[in-house]
Amino acid sequence: MKLSRPVSWFLLAFGVWSWVIWVTFVKNLVADGSGLAFDDGHLTAYFWVHLTLAVVSFVLGTVVGVIGLRGLRALRRTS
């Protein structure tokens, strides 16, 4: 399957965007002072659910970004 240039750029941008957003979220989650993530020093269910969401998003963002990058490289080879 061959991806178009706009689709490849979109996938790459989505992968980068996913990393930027979720890295920021995890930093804020770890630094949480509201009591949602930590309860008397113990990790809460909120923390584990959102950490799981972040990890899954890192993996999916990486996969999508790599597909976009490979699409761009394939287009460059055929040009």
- The SS-based structural class is mainly alpha
Oligomer: single chain
Using the alpha-carbon principal axes, give the shape: rod-shaped
User: Within the largest sheet, what's the order of strands?
Assistant: 1-2
Architecture overview:
- The protein is mainly alpha-helical and 79 residues long.
- Helix content is 76%, strand content 5%.
- The protein contains two helices and two strands.
- It has helices spanning 5-30, 45-78; strands spanning 38-39, 42-43.
- A hairpin with a 2-residue loop joins β1 and β2.
- α1 packs antiparallel against α2 (45-78).
- The chain is rod-shaped and about 60 Å long.
- The two termini are 16 Å apart.
Give a short synopsis of this structure.
With 79 residues, this protein is mainly α.
What's the arrangement of secondary structure elements?
Elements: H1 5-30, E1 38-39, E2 42-43, H2 45-78
